Amino acid sequence: MKSSLLPWVALAVSLEFVLVAGTLLDYDAEERVLVNNKCKCTTVTSRLVPSKENPDEEILERNIRITVPLRSRQNISDPTSPLRTTFVYRMAELCKKCDPVEVELGGEIYEAQQSTSCNEPETCYTYNRDKCYTTTFPFIYHGETKHIQAALTPASCYAD
C-alpha cells in the first residue's frame, strides 16, 4: 500500500505548493476560473466562502484541479517516444499570461505582457486542441516508400 502512494507523494512534492482538500459547504458562491491551462491539464478556481471561525466574514478558497495524462509521451508529436514519467507544475508558470494587453498610461496606449518568461517554450503534457500537431510516417505504396505528413489533431489543422 505504501509503495502505491509513493508516486502521488512525489507528485505533490514536485508541485511546489500545498494542495488542501476542502470540505463541501452548502454555500452558493460564484466560482471564478483563474487558470485553465489545457497544455498542462490544470484548472485553478477561486470563490468566496464563509469563514468557519466567523460566519460573518468571507475568505478566499482556491481549488486546484490537475488531470495527469497517464498515457502522455515525452514528445507529444512523436507517437514512438517513451511515456512521460515526470510531471512538473509551478504556479508561476501556470498563471503567466503572455497575450498582450492594451494599457493606457499618461493618455497614451501601450501593449504590455503580464509575464516576462513568455519566450521560453512550454512543455505540454497533452495536445492543445487549438494548435495543429503533425508527424511524418512512412507510407508504402506499390513497393515505393514515401514519407507523408499526418495531422495528430485534425480538427485544429483543417478548416471546416
**Shape category:** extended
Structural class of the helix and strand makeup? alpha+beta
Main sheet? 3 strands, antiparallel
**Element order: H for helix, E for strand:** HEEEHEEEEH
Measure the end-to-end span: 50 Å
Radius of gyration: 22 Å
- Strand percentage, roughly? 25-35%
- Poorly predicted sequence stretches spanning 5 or more consecutive residues: 1-6, 8-28
* Mean pLDDT score: 75
- Measured as a percent range, the helix fraction is 10-25%
Tally of DSSP β-strands: 7
Word description of this protein:
With 160 residues, the protein is an alpha+beta fold. Helices cover 13% and strands 31% of the residues. The protein has a three-stranded antiparallel β-sheet, with no helix packed on it. The longest helix has 13 residues, at 2-14. The radius of gyration is 22 Å and the shape is extended. Mean pLDDT is 75; it is low at 1-6 and 8-28.
Set down the secondary structure blueprint.
Elements: H1 2-14, E1 32-37, E2 42-50, E3 58-66, H2 91-94, E4 101-105, E5 108-112, E6 134-141, E7 144-151, H3 154-157
